Structure formats: structure tokens, C-alpha cells
Amino acid sequence: MKVPVATEDENGNAGDGYTVTDTPEGILPHTGGAGIIAIVVAGLAIVTVGVIAYNRRRANA
To answer: What is the distance between the terminal CA atoms of the chain, rounded to a whole angstrom?
Structure first.
């Protein structure tokens, strides 16, 4: 979709303006990136340690 945008200078005089083209690249915005990998790995490690601890306690009881 192309949207025309008007411009003005500091005196209020209209300029030629320009056109902005909206080109969506996907459904969701690009957030997180590589930083999320450390959080996911830490979460998986915590869950794994919890499952191992639970199974050891259950076997000894």
C-alpha cells in the first residue's frame, strides 16, 4: 500500500511531499533474536534438573 505524505517547511509552506510504501514482511514482528536462546536453554536445564531430582526422590522413597 502506498500512502502519500505531505511536508511543510518551518514557515508552513507546502513541499512536494513523498510516498511511503508499506511492505509487510510477516505476521509477527521480529523480536527476541539470539538473546532468547539463552533463556530457553536455561529453562530447559532447570526443567531437566527438576525431573531428575523428582525421579531420584521417587526411587528412594
So the answer is: 66
